[in-house]
From TrEMBL, chains A, B, C, D, E, F:
One of its GO terms (biological process) is molybdate ion transport. Pfam families: TOBE (PF03459). This is Molybdenum-pterin binding domain protein. SUPFAM superfamilies: MOP-like. Keywords: Molybdenum.
Length: 68, 68, 68, 68, 68, 68
């Protein structure tokens, strides 16, 4: 199965910080860029996200702005 | 001035398609990844976005999901 | 692999309308509720979304509001 | 008055967890699906959201993705 | 009933443009600011949104960034 | 450089509350309206956001709903 979200950036978890409701996951993608994600803490625990894990950062194209 | 959005990915416009209300901008970033953005057509015209232009794709971290 | 988005609602496509940049997909889920999605036209075409198809509507929990 | 958001799913609060800035509200809707929402803690307190309350989960259609 | 979204800005519709799937609504709020909204064309038609109408622009606080 | 986001509302920070992962920033804009933003705590610290600071609240038009 495939997801409609246009942006699927593969990388490795290089930072993980847990709050009460949310957690912050930093993913290093190709070319050295870092992508920061805030998801629910529940997701991080259910998916077993850990530093060093191979993950994909997903962004719907209507959530991307352009600075030009 | 700086923007709070954590994700600011520099690249070059490699695709541009205009609709009636929205437009689709494809940005090639470091490492060869492509980021697709849907913004208002008004923005594309006011900012003068064109293929080949150097731009930055911006994403708020609460809009990034993780596939793990 | 699993996606961090908390809301994954299975259903069947009962409506599909295509624009220039975006498309509208209506999914009937369990209990008779209908969920409307606006995604890029490219996604609809690449995923081969058609009326009658079994799909899952996905929503990140930070995008859900409460009326109480 | 009516809200433009296409997705308005009626249900009952079956889970509530409070953080410092945000809170997580779980709503059981028709057909047994559960919808998880992360809203500001202020909202939860001002609206008096409690377990067992009848509420409506609201999602803008541009925030719905499709897995197909 | 009340909506959890923190930002509810009252104003008057001063611009309206219809596409195939989406429509753009411009609302002039207190202090002369204009707020631009892109919603589904279906919403604009069902709600009977017209130039001159009194409406409220609604934004969830997780969708607001800060430039500082 | 300019940002594609249509809504750029200038104001002054009149409220600031810090959580573990996120922070809430309240901005008073022209006409006395208040706009509430939830951003990452990291952003608040890197941008040095403080009560009384002149900032701009930014919202992408696809994130604005209409109540009519």
């Amino acid at each position: 199965m495939s997801l409609s979200a246009r942006n699927q950036l593969k990388g490795k978890v290089v930072g993980l910080k847990k709050g009460v409701i949310t957690a912050e996951v930093v993913v290093e993608i190709a070319g050295g860029n870092k992508v920061t994600s805030i998801v629910s803490l529940d997701s991080v625990e259910e998916l077993g996200i850990k530093e060093g894990a191979e993950v994909t950062a997903i962004v719907k194209s209507t959530d991307v702005m352009i600075l030009a």
